[in-house]
Amino acid sequence: MNGSGAKFAWQLHSSILSDKKRGIVCMNYFKGRHFQQDIIIVAVGYYFRFSLSYRDIVELLRDRGVSVHHTTVMCWVHHYGPIFKALWRQHQTSHTKSWRIDETYINVKGHWTYLYRAIDSNGLTLDFELRKHRDYAAAYHFLKRLLTTNGRPDRLVTDQYRATLKAVKHLMKQDYLSKSAHQCSKYRNNLIEQDHRFIKRHRVRSASFQSIRTASATLSGIEVIHALRKKTRRELSLIGFSAVDELKAMVPA
């Protein structure tokens, strides 16, 4: 996805939020593609769910009679990651009012970037965002959007990193958060520390990210699948979890 692709993804996210308020369905995301919608969803669904390379996906598709180049799979991953993130946000359901906020390290072309993440007390994903720096601006931007989208929590647990504490205090002054709601507790934050492991484990076999744009797009898809899987396990579904079926269910008919 080039610069115009990134601009499209942002416009898409804005349009989905607008359409959600009006109660209407958005565009056909697969129109004009050389491959059928089901093939694309299978390819990206497997990549987001399992620790596979693009060439692994090509081999799996070839065994099913579909010939595709690994760079095509890469383009699908970069293009549809932000789209599925926007659709996932549209389909989010209720959550508890006790939240855990933390960030984890992601290597992008030899440099550390920071994936800010938020979950509730049941372990369900609330939001996530990849940032270049771990500083006040990054923490404030992430927390403000989280609070604006999901309302005021009864409890917000963070670590004791100074930039995060500064952002929380600023949001308290702006009345986004009550003073009694914030807690600094390493023990209570173990829940999200354990939840980081899925993202770390997923990247073991995959090549390192080459830009923060492609890293953000890919991690969007991975986080969405992780969030859907946790929700399915929480609901004790008898059918089991299928990344492909979950992504198909999110796409408007």
From TrEMBL:
Keyword Acetylation applies: no
Pfam families xref list: DDE_Tnp_IS240
Q: What is this protein called?
A: IS431mec transposase
Biological process terms from the Gene Ontology for this record are: DNA recombination; transposition
User: Where does the signal peptide begin and end?
Assistant: none
InterPro entries referenced in this protein's UniProt entry, alphabetically: DDE_dom, IS_Transposase, Transpos_IS6
| Ranges where the DDE domain occurs | 97-231
Asked whether the keyword ATP-binding is assigned, the reply is no
Task: Look up the domain of life of the source.
Answer: Bacteria
- This protein's species is Lacticaseibacillus saniviri JCM 17471 = DSM 24301
UniProt entry keywords in alphabetical sequence: DNA recombination, DNA-binding, Transposition
What Gene Ontology terms describe what this protein does at the molecular function level?
Answer: DNA binding
